[in-house]
Amino acid sequence: MGTERYEHGTHEESARTLATSTQLSTGQMAGAIGEGRSFLGIVIPVEGEYARKVSATRAATGDPYAYIPPHITLMSGVPLPDPAEAIAHIRNVVSAFSPFPLRFAGTDTFYPVSPVTYLRVAEGERELTELHERLHSGPLDAKPAYPFVPHLTLAQEVAPERLAQVRREWEDVSFNMSAHSVTVHVGDGAGSWTQIEELAFSG
């Protein structure tokens, strides 16, 4: 979730409490969602040694969102119509997928459209795109404002020279991980996000 203005985009810009969000029980979801307008964010967490390195790199550049755990965004800021229907839809989509491998290799940037440098997804893009498309269907059939570009943010909202420096530093880095779950977050549109569920790929 980032300010990149791609589908990874606006969720990170507003997710100022995401780093400390917690998973809620089913009975607590209604309270988290509340009565006002709510929005959904769905991500695949990135964990392990390289996740720590990504976080360190973001912090070193002065990235204002460095505190947000590394992740790949699948859905960002989609209005939440009927909470029960939406959550059932997400569970149904996620349960049809099995864990799948991801490989990150090479860097790219959204600059000058948006000040973001990122690691490219070299393996797993097909599964990520299919997940993205299936999630954006049914009760969550909202057309994203920008193309879906699966990626792992390395730096954002920093000076162009810092973006270029990070891109050079990470250009030859590659690593693998297994995507085994998604986390679902609800936002209030004012910058507060709460994780309401973690769903495992169980297909």
In short:
This protein has 203 residues and is an alpha+beta fold. Helix content is 31%, strand content 30%.
State the main characteristics.
four-stranded antiparallel sheet; 203 residues; alpha+beta; disordered N terminus; 6 helices; 8 strands; single chain; Cyclic Phosphodiesterase, Chain: A; 31% helix
What does this structure look like?
The protein is an alpha+beta fold. It has a single domain (about 10-20, about 25-180), classed as Cyclic Phosphodiesterase, Chain: A (Alpha-Beta Complex), CATH 3.90.1140. It is about 30% helix and about 30% strand. The chain is built from six helices and eight strands. It has a four-stranded antiparallel sheet with strand order 2-1-7-8. It has a four-stranded antiparallel sheet with strand order 5-4-3-6, with helices on both faces. A hairpin with a 5-residue loop joins β7 and β8 (about 195-200). About 40% of the residues are buried.
The strand line-up of the biggest sheet is 2-1-7-8
CATH topology term? Cyclic Phosphodiesterase, Chain: A
The percentage of residues in β strands lies in 25-35%
Average pLDDT taken over every residue: 84
CATH class: Alpha Beta
| Structural classification | alpha+beta
User: Could you give a short account of the major beta sheet?
Assistant: 4 strands, antiparallel
Give the CA-CA distance, first to last residue: 25 Å
CATH superfamily label: Cyclic phosphodiesterase
State the share of residues found in helices, binned by percent: 25-40%
Question: What is the CATH architecture assignment?
Answer: Alpha-Beta Complex
Overall form: globular
Cα-atom Rg, whole angstroms? 16 Å
Poorly predicted tracts of residues: 1-32
- The number of E-state strands comes to 8
What is the element string, with H for helices and E for strands? HHEHEHEEHEHEEE
Total separate domains: 1
Total DSSP helices: 6
